[in-house]
Design a protein that fits this description.
By secondary structure, the chain is of the alpha+beta class. Strands 1-2-3-4-5 form a five-stranded antiparallel beta sheet. A five-stranded mixed beta sheet has the order 13-12-14-15-16, with helices on both faces. A four-stranded antiparallel beta sheet has the order 6-9-10-11.
């Protein structure tokens, strides 16, 4: 479905992108922008930027970028229609009947069809569980202590021992092979055709936060391998951005969430009254899952198996939770292996007691680190304290870091001042937390000219125009959209020129003109191309070089494509070349970047002045 540009812009104008993304990512203001850890890839240093001025986000690490709509589409896997409806509801705007385009209608229809098939499969598995064929699976679930109410509540089912049973069922419903192939429910090979991915397994439907079935997990009946099998990623299922049980846990009144490893652990805890339990989906905890949790709670209790794999998972997961702004604590269930076993053997009261005694997540990691050293040996303790200083350095909040420093100094009998000095030394030497380096400074006009190839220069120009619309009158005296030889850059330039004619440049609105996700990401990068320079004259020269390079590239393109018999055209282009050469020889005019056209601004990413005014320097 396609809404008018006016309603799309109205909803976007009523959306504060900083407020929206703050619900997913912990942001800190730096200069005129906000920075945090990217929710689309794992990182230790925040390279994810949100600009309230441009109403856009961009990650300098992985290149993800866009406006409020594209954020929801990338993070929540929403369609554009769903993102628009979400933001309209949030802004209190009632959407009119939408215009419908064929492409948008097909995308919406296919996504709805995939979700419908997942639901049909879930209902089929439930019926199989309650049929004579599912008696062994039902007995297995009951032997694990699950009540019939819990089995129904979580929609548990059974996949038949015949390897094409679900396929035949859905074919009888009228679903075509091409769409069935995209559901993640089947294998296909040319010799045997379609076969069920899951067979002779207890089935656990995976639901998103809105209780829609998006995939499945299946536990084998017997000794076959693998013990658990999960749906592959599809257009409706991204395991790195979902959590098992969240559709139930999101409604909890507890102040914290419980994070564990398995489906049965979640179900056992919910049945015992701990309705705030969730689990990752057969993979290591991701930054996206942590960001998802941060929408519903500020504290997470981690329960992993106490074996080596569980310890490794905790070591990796706790920093991710902390980076998402979540307080993490670790629950020790020894001698039990997991929550399901503990609750069945000791009961809910004993389980709650263990939850209340959960250990601070950072101190847990420090304790694990301390076990790797002989603290009775001076050399061992010295090495441990060096590592401890590095761990403390990873805490960005100074007050929080000092609090943990004092606690660790007391626990491990260390001089707090000595430890504080070591933290400072590692910070200065760069042996602790790594920082994202800004691009290499280009000090001269020649350096700038050598550094920029054609496309990058055009993207730089678009970045400058989107961030400093005051430059548009100056640029329009020298360039037109035709001077952007990169097709996508030219299309973006045309949109900026149109906006300038209407008196308002809006980069976020430009993105909405592109429907392809790769194009949207590329356009976002065009508005975030960085150049780090210290001095006003260097910035002026760099800008001048980019402008001249664009004029020269376009001129060379015209000359190369000119009909050799067109003497008048050749004379005209020769005159333009002479004019350009004269302009380059004269250098940038003195009145460029006056206070009226280029205000002093600090780039939060590079830490350098962008277009500094001559008088300000």
């Amino acid at each position: 479905m396609r809404y008018t540009d006016e309603i799309i812009e109205e909803v976007r104008d009523h959306t504060d992108i900083v407020e929206l993304i703050s619900g997913y990512v912990k942001l800190q203001k730096k200069g005129s922008s906000y920075f945090g850890l990217c929710p689309f890839h794992n990182e230790k240093t925040g390279s994810f930027s949100v600009s309230p001025h441009k109403q856009m986000y961009y990650c300098f690490g992985c290149g993800a970028g866009g406006n409020a709509y594209t954020f929801l589409m990338q993070y929540e896997n929403y369609s554009f229609q769903e993102a628009l409806q979400f933001l309209a509801d949030k802004a209190g705007i009632r959407l009119p009947e939408a215009d419908t385009s064929k492409e948008a209608k097909e995308r919406e229809s296919r996504r709805a069809l995939l979700l419908k098939i997942q639901k049909e499969a879930a209902e089929y598995y439930v019926r199989k569980l309650l049929s004579p064929a599912g008696q062994a699976a039902l007995a297995y679930l009951r032997n694990r202590g699950l009540s019939d109410l819990t089995i129904r509540r979580f929609g548990l089912g059974y996949s038949d021992k015949y390897s094409n049973d679900l396929y035949r069922f859905l074919k009888e419903k009228g679903y075509a092979d091409p769409v069935l192939a995209d559901t993640g429910l089947f294998h296909y090979d040319e010799r045997h055709g379609f076969s069920d991915k899951f067979w002779n397994r207890v089935m656990f439907p995976i639901m998103d936060a809105n209780s829609r079935v998006i995939g499945f997990g299946g536990r084998v009946m017997g000794d076959a391998k693998p013990k658990y099998l999960n749906s592959p990623e599809t257009d409706v299922f991204d395991k790195s951005r979902n959590l098992y049980g969240l559709h139930e846990a999101r409604r909890t009144k507890e102040r914290y969430m419980i994070l564990c490893e398995g489906y049965m652990d979640v179900i056992a805890m919910h049945q015992a009254g701990f309705t705030n339990a969730v689990a990752s989906l057969g993979t290591a905890l991701t930054g996206q899952q942590c960001a998802l949790l941060s929408r519903y709670t500020k504290e997470v209790l981690v329960i992993y198996d106490m074996d080596d794999a569980g310890v490794r998972a905790a070591r990796r997961g706790i920093p991710l939770l902390r980076q998402a702004g979540l307080a993490a604590r670790v629950v020790d269930l020894q001698p039990a292996k997991d929550p399901d076993e503990f609750i069945r053997s000791r009961g809910p009261d004993a389980f709650r007691s263990r939850l209340e005694k959960a250990e601070n997540g950072f101190l847990y990691l420090v304790r694990l680190a301390s076990k790797e050293y002989d603290l009775q040996d001076p050399a061992g303790k010295t090495a441990f304290l060096h590592q401890l200083a590095g761990m403390l350095l990873d805490i960005s909040d100074e007050i929080e870091r000092n609090t943990y420093l004092e606690a660790c100094a007391q626990l491990y009998r260390a001089d707090p001042e000595m430890l504080r000095k070591e933290v400072g030394r590692q910070s200065l030497s760069g042996t602790g937390r790594k920082t994202l380096e800004a691009p290499r400074s280009l000090r001269t006009r020649k350096d700038a000219a050598d550094a920029y190839k054609k496309d990058r220069g055009q993207k730089l120009m678009l970045t400058w125009l989107s961030g400093y619309p005051e430059l548009m009158p100056l640029v329009r005296r020298e360039l037109s959209p035709e001077d952007f030889t990169n097709p996508l850059c030219r299309e973006v330039a045309l949109l900026l020129w149109e906006q300038a004619d209407k008196g308002h440049i809006n980069p976020a609105a430009v993105i909405d003109h592109f429907t392809d996700e790769e194009d949207q990401t590329e356009v976002a990068s065009m508005f975030h191309t960085e150049l780090a320079l210290d001095k006003a004259d260097d910035m002026k020269n760099a800008f001048f070089d980019v402008l001249c390079r664009m004029k020269r590239d376009n001129l060379e393109l015209k000359i190369a494509s000119l009909d050799p018999s067109d003497l008048q055209g050749l004379i005209q282009l020769t005159e333009e070349r002479k004019k350009l050469e004269k302009m380059q020889a004269s250098g940038p005019p003195d009145d460029w970047f006056s206070i009226d056209t280029a205000p002093v601004e600090l780039s939060a990413y590079t830490g350098k002045r962008v277009f500094p005014d001559k008088e300000k320097e």
